[in-house]
Backbone:
């Protein structure tokens, strides 16, 4: 059974006359799940994750920032493209295995067609200076979007300064030392999980 979607809930007022955030919603139908991820995959040029954060957390309000960070972390650790893993987890979260299949189909439908067209065009015009400059400009824009997403996700870890250390180590290993991302995950991932497990047992 598909979850019921609230119909335009009014903002609740807190004691300080500051409107609280509206409650989370959920995709009402599988078709909505398909079209949201289909739309999402067409928005990004080399980097879709910033758009995913904005649409799933801010626009659709399907996930909280904390939930998005958790799913994004798992999608980066698991094999395969990050966004594909994220789509599978979001779809499964709301509609089980059917939602996972539909979200995956939404992610892949349009790119399968576009990639063939782009590949043919790129093979013919890759050496054209205008095309080369356009691709360089797109790369710069994508870098800015990724930085903006990181800033928006920072509140999810700011309340626990111990998480800053793991973020700093990962950034230093990949961004400064230019280490392979796989080895950084292999080393830091188990250590972070073991430390979190130890802290939970103590609590």
Residues:
């Amino acid at each position: 059974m598909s979850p019921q979607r609230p119909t335009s809930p009014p903002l609740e007022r807190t004691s300080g006359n500051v409107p609280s955030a509206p409650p989370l919603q959920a995709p009402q139908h599988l078709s909505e799940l398909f079209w949201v991820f289909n739309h999402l995959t067409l928005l990004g040029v080399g980097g879709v994750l910033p758009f995913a954060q904005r649409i799933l957390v801010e626009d659709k309000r399907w996930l909280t920032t904390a939930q998005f960070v958790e799913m994004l972390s798992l999608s980066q650790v698991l094999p395969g493209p990050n966004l594909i893993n994220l789509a599978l987890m979001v779809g499964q979260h709301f509609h089980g295995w059917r939602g996972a299949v539909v979200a995956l189909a939404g992610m892949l439908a349009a790119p399968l067609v576009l990639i063939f067209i782009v590949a043919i065009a790129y093979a013919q015009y890759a050496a054209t200076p205008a095309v080369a400059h356009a691709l360089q400009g797109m790369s710069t824009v994508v870098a800015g979007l990724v930085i903006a997403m990181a800033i928006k996700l920072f509140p999810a870890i700011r309340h626990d300064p111990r998480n800053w250390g793991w973020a700093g180590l990962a950034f230093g290993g990949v961004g400064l030392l230019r280490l392979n991302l796989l080895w950084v995950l292999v080393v830091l991932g188990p250590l972070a999980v073991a430390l979190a497990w130890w802290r939970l047992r103590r609590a």
User: Anything to note?
Assistant: The chain has two domains: 30-159, 160-203. Residues 1-20 have pLDDT under 50 and may be disordered. The CA atoms of residues 90 and 100 lie 7 Å apart.
